[in-house]
Amino acid sequence: MNIGQASKQTGVSQRMIRHYEAIGLIPKAARRDSGYRDYDEKDVHTLRFIRRARDLGFPIQEIGKLLALWQDRSRSSADVKAIAMSRAAELRRKELEIHAMRRSLEQLAENCYGDNRPDCPILEDLALDA
Q: How high is the pLDDT of residue 116?
């Protein structure tokens, strides 16, 4: 199948498929006589794997490690679990940061009259370190 068909079947844009090839995340696709890329079911399966890993927040480097483990039948599941738990811990850290930012913004907004007056505690707070 061509790149457009592979894109439709996987939910990965054509641009990202080309990018993944360029950075070596996936092997370069075979070429037809016409020069068009030619993808098979194995390629589609790999692209779906990558898309799912991206959906779970894994960065490209970790996806490369996961792909290598996925393709290595002698792997230890402990290696895969360690990567997943590390990503989960990072997402938890980010979640806590986002909650703290939201609470700060809500508190600032609560102290703002939101009327026609020029004084604004939100802008004053933002300017503290400026």
A: 87
